[in-house]
Design goal:
The chain has 392 residues and is mostly beta strands. The chain has a 6-stranded mixed beta barrel with strand order 2-3-8-4-7-6. It is globular, with a radius of gyration of 30 Å. The termini are far apart.
């Protein structure tokens, strides 16, 4: 027995000696419960740990398209959510949707729209119903929660339209209404318009939104609008920026507009530079009145209706390329960008050019989907600039 005890003592000293020399130690393991087990046992476990829920800092909104002329998204207004189709329009600052108070007899356009009913919304807030009267639209201001994607925009003030005039700009509008993404200096509803409120409520962090328009005819999806940043996966190469000329519109300088007549000749417009307003709400490329006929003639178009021009659809892929220079960089568009296919009950498919009268003063142009569908565009509110990049 004594020999065994001495042997154990000797083994212990030898083991400790080896452990000290090699820094190897034996420690007991204690099995603790997993966070899931603790949460099952105590529903308030995560709160006790003071773990904050992570909120997204941007949002990607899927756009759908209607005949290459509109790019719109679905939103829900109020609770329970009332569905509306809206265009994200950089030429508007306000949001508006039609109201259930819009008479379908007096304003037939309202019979084709989803109509907002504030009486069934538990999130509707009573505010002073200030009259709203812009571009022929009449109504009053109201306040409710807007949901799109994973975003909730609470207590947004917008226009509830009770009268939509029978004008072509509204007759051919597929969407129900508009969410304006223009500068709030033009707003008639509130200074805290949709995008500004997202920033103010910290729903997004970076004061940037980006637009990708998809003209692929095999899918109804029309691209995306990325609120709060830039989606690099759509970009090929560098982004070229142009400064906003005045914090009123997304208005920048275009250096030249050139139509390639043949391999050696081209016809140029805007040689001394001109100003353009970027328009995500339409497919049009608006030009000064004196250029409308000439530009359409150079792309082999003839007058159709409503001062719009058409080309034979069989020629779309053979039409001349057009070069638009912005920020000393050339961006090239082809017929598939500046031609819009439309269905006509009598004549079937017709192909309308994007070139029409801009209706703007001082020779200002507008660039809508006819150009924007060829590039990735980012609108930088913080630095007051617009960026363009080639698409992958």
């Amino acid at each position: 027995m004594m020999n065994r005890l001495m042997l154990l003592v000797l083994f212990y000293h030898v083991f400790c000696s080896i452990a000290e020399e090699t820094n190897i130690y034996s420690m007991p393991l204690i099995r603790r419960k997993s966070p899931l087990q603790m949460l099952v046992k105590d529903p308030h476990y995560m709160r006790k740990l003071n773990i904050q829920k992570m909120h997204p800092t941007n949002e990607n909104i899927t756009l759908f398209k209607y005949m290459d002329s509109e790019y719109y998204a679905e939103i829900l207004v109020g609770k329970p959510g009332q569905k509306f189709l809206v265009i994200f329009d950089t030429t508007w600052s306000d949001m508006w949707i039609p109201s259930k108070l819009c008479s379908k007899t007096i304003y037939p356009i309202c019979s084709k729209k989803n109509l907002y009913d504030q009486d069934v919304s538990s999130t509707h807030k009573l505010i002073d119903p200030t009259p709203f009267n812009v571009d022929g639209l009449v109504g009053n201001l109201t306040c409710d929660t807007i949901r799109l994607g994973h975003l909730n925009v609470t207590d947004l003030i917008f226009a509830e339209i009770t009268g939509i005039p029978n004008l072509s700009q509204y007759q051919f509008m597929h969407a129900d209404g508009i969410i304006g993404l223009g500068y709030n200096t033009n707003a008639r509803t509130t200074n805290n318009t949709f995008f500004y409120k997202l920033l103010d409520d910290k729903k997004i962090v970076n004061p940037i939104f980006s637009v990708y328009m998809n003209r692929d005819p095999t899918t109804p999806k029309g691209g995306t609008i990325f609120l709060g940043g830039i989606e690099r996966k759509h970009i090929n190469g560098e982004i070229t920026y142009a400064p906003v000329l005045e914090k009123k519109h997304w208005q920048i300088e275009m250096n030249q507009f050139s139509i390639q007549i043949n391999k050696t000749n081209s016809k140029t417009f805007c040689d001394q530079g001109c100003q353009v307003i970027l328009d995500t709400g339409s497919n049009r490329i608006g030009v000064p009145t004196e250029y409308v006929t000439a530009i359409n003639t150079f792309v082999k178009a003839t007058l159709y209706l409503y001062n719009r021009y058409e080309v034979p659809c069989s020629l779309v892929n053979k039409l001349p390329k057009i070069t638009i220079n912005i920020g000393s960089r050339d961006f090239v568009i082809s017929g598939r960008h500046y031609i819009q296919k439309m269905e006509n009950e009598k004549n079937g498919t017709i192909c309308i050019t994007a070139f029409c009268d801009s209706g703007l003063e001082d020779g200002v142009w507008s660039l809508g989907g006819g150009f924007l569908s060829s590039v990735y565009t980012t609108f930088d509110l913080e630095n007051n600039r617009v960026g363009f990049a080639n698409l992958k």
